[in-house]
Design goal:
globular, nine-stranded mixed β-sheet, 17 helices, 3 domains, Double Stranded RNA Binding Domain
Length: 498
Amino acid sequence: MKIFLDSPINKYYVQTLGMIFFPGEHFAENEELKPGEPVLSVRTCEEENGIRTFSTVSLDEKSESAEYFAEFTADRSRERVLKLSIGGAVLAAANKLLGYRPAWGMMIGVRPSKIASEMLDAGYSKTKVKRILNSDYLVIPKKAALATSIALTERSVIGTPSPKDCSVYISIPFCPTRCSYCSFVSYTSKRLLSLIPEYLEKLKEDIRFNFETIRMLGLNVRTVYIGGGTPTILDEDQLEELLSFIAAQTDISALEEFTLEAGRPDTITYEKFEIAKRYGVTRVSVNPQSLSDKLLESVGRNHTSAEFFRAYEDARKAGIKTVNVDLIAGLPGDDFKNFAYTFDEILKLRPENITVHTFCVKKSAELLKQDSNVYSLRGGSVGKCVDYSQIKSDAAGYIPYYMYRQKNTVGNYENVGFMLKGHEGFYNIYMMEEIHSIFASGAGAVSKLVDNTTLNCNKRDIDRLFHQKYPYEYLREDKNEAFREAAIRFYREHGMLD
């Protein structure tokens, strides 16, 4: 896709708007226009009372143009007015050309509830927030209501954050097989899986170092989250080794939440959940994604729906407080009838958390190599599936408690976590809304140092510390001392040290 930009706006913002209408497009610089390549032109002009944008969208010798004016107001920054103006013009021109209005309007960020939270913090009523999302950001009413509802739920869960709070993330980046839609850095070959014992030793050293740093900074650990990959790829002895080590580093009984993202039913045993329960795990994920065995096989999930039900029952027998079930709407080959059946069957189980993801096409996913046409603008029946999950979960007493979006999701839809009352996924909220620092260990893990001395979540200074992406790199390098120095410096500079 070619972008021609005459505006002080960051070019990435315009590219992301273009990807709403042309998912999967690339933005190579200084190359000749290719046949069938879309073109987006944007020109802004600042006037006395606001900013006017002129936009043209072209595809296959057809073009449509539009202009949009966004007014300066006391509660809008100049940058926000600029984005509103550009977003309105691009959406209008693309809608003329393609006949498509995105449900989320011009909202392109990972956190759709961020702007709603900002307005609530400014004292706006729930009704006014929904109206502004609809009128200014061109979000359709039901999505504006969803974003506002989740923002209110998050506020009630978060309360007043303490500068002394933090969470811990631990990465197990290995899987028994790789799903065709997955882009996470997870490793499945026998040679790489043989690294697990050595990886665990290095991981324990880093976990110990992180907890020492947390104590040096005088912080309180609110949640611990073990993610992947598939953490239950560890055998029973390895899992007990890891969990007992974590329990020796901190008071597990003082945690709000301790999550083990078990994930794949083919790696789950009752013994593993019994070990998890014994060492204080309060939340696990058992993820079928779909209850269609044919569909599971087609996307490389090496388990059946029967194995999911068995693994779910194991979690129940072990007495884990909160069980989460992940589903995906819009998987290639899926349809509304099958998704609705899956969702209804999951509701019958009454898990405390249900997370519905919209299928996202990742550039490094195997599925894209097999079929480059999996990108979908309108998403077929996926919008109906997403709506169904939200309507049915509400009727069953579930509350949407967190949400995020990704680029190149089918139909440009969202991922939503639902909870039964009293079963908030605390870590998910803290991580997604960047409420406090996350100290991470393991390959591919990212620590986030957050200055939460301000109550405005949207204006917090954040520093990210990246571990090596691949396990064999992670095993060779030691970043602990550098990370500790960075953490101490960050906390000192932001007045968060006693």
